[in-house]
Design brief:
The chain is α+β, with helices and mostly antiparallel strands. It folds into 2 domains: 2-53, no CATH class; 76-183, Immunoglobulin-like (Sandwich), CATH 2.60.40.1120. The chain has 3 helices and 9 strands. The chain has helices at residues 2-21, 44-53, 179-183, and strands at residues 76-81, 89-96, 99-106, 111-116, 119-136, 142-154, 157-159, 163-167, 174-176. It is elongated, with a radius of gyration of 25 Å. The model is unreliable at 22-41 (pLDDT under 50).
Length: 187
């Protein structure tokens, strides 16, 4: 009986040693939620990025992408309120002649003012949750949301020493568009 207990004790020590030797302390394990997927290892990288950035955001007023230069004094203002029921963050793009001349991050519930010279502009919105700073977007742009992505555009506005107020939560003058509509034109 004592030999059997001794053999079991030795076997337990060997098993514990093997368990601890194969564990890498630098390995981070992410929970995987994939209904209907049999081999979760194939989706590990994709899911870990989404999980990693799910609650990430930037401060209101941050400029995530490059702007094209715009000549003239900033005599007019576009005020955008992000009062969505989905509680998503957004990036407001202001385009003139197909070029992105202003872009600003706006957190859910915030308001941002964008100053531009007098002229005609198109305001486009890219909204979502979870900011991923290196996500690949069209035309080599980097940075995007990991969930609840939505793209839309307002009808063009003409400004001459005035302010235009927009509310992302309201449906007035908004049209669905795509990422290519925002990023696709030359810079």
């Amino acid at each position: 009986m004592s030999r059997l207990l001794f053999a079991l004790f030795i076997l337990a020590i060997v098993c514990l040693k093997l368990c601890f030797e194969n564990h890498d302390e630098n390995t981070t394990e992410y929970p995987i939620y994939c209904p209907g997927v049999t081999d979760n290892r194939k989706n590990q990288h994709m899911l870990s990025d989404s999980a990693k950035y799910a609650d990430n955001n930037m401060p209101t007023g941050y400029t995530p992408y490059a702007n094209s230069p715009l000549d003239g004094n900033n005599n007019s203002k576009i005020t955008v309120k992000n009062d969505t029921t989905a509680h998503t963050d957004a990036i407001v793009f202001v385009k003139r002649a197909g070029r992105i001349v202003r872009n600003t991050y706006i957190a859910a519930g915030d308001t941002v003012a964008i100053y531009v010279p007098n002229g005609t502009y198109t305001v486009l919105i890219y909204e979502g949750k979870g900011w991923h700073p290196t996500k690949q977007m069209p035309r080599e742009y980097r940075g995007g949301f990991v969930s609840k992505e939505c793209f839309f555009s307002y009808t063009p506005i003409s400004l001459s020493y005035c302010t235009k107020d927009l509310d992302i939560g309201e449906a007035c003058d908004k049209y669905s568009c795509s990422a290519d509509d925002i990023f696709g034109s030359y810079r």
